[in-house]
């Protein structure tokens, strides 16, 4: 690769919204075998909305007051939903995020838990009665969270996030380029499979804890594959750093952008197959 052709290549990339941190990343992009995509904010828009809520108004007040302390997109959706109903939220007396599981808070002297099955199970709260309803939401691609107040199960809040319009086409192009496309998410398996189905991805790694995402990338690398990781969140940063090429979503967090080798502006997924074409043509021109 001559320095000039690489400079021309990265310049072309920048014009279309593909920002390579250095020419060596452009050179390496054509060698990729596997593309790992985060779900929320990468494949989906990352603007979830509450679609279903099965408890009473007081539970909603406690739930939203608890979620006010969280920066998670799921939390924002719940707080916005409560705001629509003009509920007056309380200040949390205590708050703790449990990564990959949910949150625990004390609101108005009550202990509020919001999160997945595992979170409630760890507190010994049975959720068997909710199972069929949970499943119903999940096969619809929704993220359903369980709510408990003072260790008693109260109901479910379900949130939906729509896929980006161009996601199916981007996945199709990547597959046509001979890449294996994988979805990696902390969300549960059924929700993840539903979203994967909508975009044409057949390999899903779900229920991955935030600190395990990088390990999943390493496992694929150990198969002898060159792996690109695409993500937007703070959670994705270690995986972006470990990947052969880390691709950050331009609309995502600063931490992800810093950890990555490439940033795609506006989070436009079609720029990923385009970056691969650009890498191929750059390499060809030099040989
Ligand atoms: P993602 O890959 O979707 O960002 P996370 O690892 O952040 O997943 O979260 C995994 C799961 O933990 C969520 O699907 C949800 O069930 C639960 N969870 C995480 N944060 C919250 C929160 N603030 N409130 C309720 N549940 C949460
Ligand atoms: Mg994300």
What small-molecule ligands were found?
adenosine-5'-diphosphate, magnesium ion
Oligomer: single chain
- Outline, from the CA principal axes? elongated
Low-confidence stretches: none
Strand order of the largest sheet: 1-13-12-11-2-9-10
> Largest sheet, described in full?
7 strands, mixed
Distance between the termini: 8 Å
Short summary of the structure?
It is found in: Cell membrane; Endomembrane system. The protein is of the alpha/beta class and 287 residues long. 43% of the residues lie in helices and 24% in strands.
Would you give an account of this structure?
The protein is elongated, with a radius of gyration of 21 Å. It contains 13 helices and 13 strands. The model has no long low-confidence stretch (mean pLDDT 96). It has helices at residues 3-16, 23-29, 39-43, 57-67, 73-84, 117-122, 131-139, 167-176, 189-199, 213-222, 237-242, 254-259, 271-286; strands at residues 18-20, 34-38, 49-53, 92-98, 102-107, 110-115, 143-149, 152-160, 180-184, 203-205, 227-231, 245-249, 262-264. With 287 residues, the protein is an alpha/beta fold. A seven-stranded mixed beta sheet has the order 1-13-12-11-2-9-10, with helices on both faces. The longest helix has 16 residues, at 271-286. It is 43% helix and 24% strand.
